[in-house]
Fold this sequence. Notes:
Layout: H1 2-39, H2 43-70, H3 73-90, H4 97-125, H5 130-157, H6 162-180, H7 190-194, H8 199-202, H9 206-235, H10 241-269, H11 271-291, H12 298-321, H13 326-356, H14 358-362, H15 364-383
Helix pairs in contact: 1-4, 1-5, 1-6, 2-3, 2-4, 2-13, 3-4, 3-6, 4-13, 5-10, 5-12, 9-10, 9-12, 9-13, 9-15, 10-12, 11-12, 11-15
Amino acid sequence: MKKINNHRLxxxxxxxxxxxxxxITTLKSQINPLIQQDYKIDYSQLGFIMACYxxxxxxxxxxGGVGIEKFSLKQVLWAGLVICSISLVTISYINSYxxxxxxxxxxxxxxxxxxxxxxSLASIVFTKNKGKMMNIFHLFFGVGGIIAPIYANHLFxxxxxxxxxxxxxSVLIVFLFLFSLLxxxxxxxxxxxxxxxxxxxxxxxxxxxxxxxMFLMHVGAEIGVGSWLGVYLVDVQARTDTEVGFYIxxxxxLFTIGRFIASLIVERVGYLRLVIICAVGGIITILxxxxxxxxxxxxxxxxxxxISVNFPTMQAAMFENFSxxxxxxxxxxxxxxxxxxxxxxxxxxxxxxxxVGIRLGYGIFILYLIILAGLTYSLKAxxxxxxxxxxxxxxxxG
Length: 398
């Protein structure tokens, strides 16, 4: 009974971590304009602030996974919670642009540790139906994104500033810390615990490299499609602000629905097969949305239904395939995702948009998804041998 209760506590902790991560991470969408007004900075300076956060996040995910392998999941989680709480509270006590940039780096480190810890915990506690559970797990990130603006607006109505939304958010971090005290997190035993692992050693495994590239391409497409949708609708189709808001909202609504639907079908369809199907679905909707009449723009929003499925499903496939150094591999793939966000979703697309126009620039996401489908197929066909990776162990092979 005690073991069952502890497992339930660990599952609740995992969902709580990704929920809090979603709330704090998505606050920036509403807070960024207020930071710009308060500090009287231009778009480039605001972009630098966000880049500082991303750099901290990438550093944390890169080293966080190895840190979990070397020390323990609970110790690394606690370190991340402490860093998060300090940086969130500090935001209310600074008034310098450069100090804000420094605090954002620290906050990015804390949130990156929280992210890799939550995903590592998920790899431990979701022992059955990993595809279903990982899609539900990441669904909670979307729930956090829904809660964030409601939470922020409520505090604004009470008279708090944008800094207060971050500082009061530290209460959520304290809750996670206190709740984690109730949980007994499984740790590695014996020689496996003592064995030193380096990133170079991990990357010698070709399957790890393929998974890393898959996350690089997927995040470049996932973040990019949503981030540039509004710009495309305005610059190419001259849509109004109301129309743009509708298409973007629809994208994220379908994005959330996609993960819910995936949780119901992924164990039957098979993990890698579903990734290929959704990648092809995204390719078709983006292509038709770009070459079709203006009414086909709705297909760009429908892309969210397909593209939402890949990240959690790829993680489930990864958890099925690897038993050793899983935290380090998670950290590596999350780092790849962070680089995909910065380089492939934003920087490279921006350059292409300037050179050839946003219609062709937006089409680069088709190429990302083609590469993703190809990598997934090669993994399915050549490298993954374990029965039960393509389908749940209780079902027949996909």
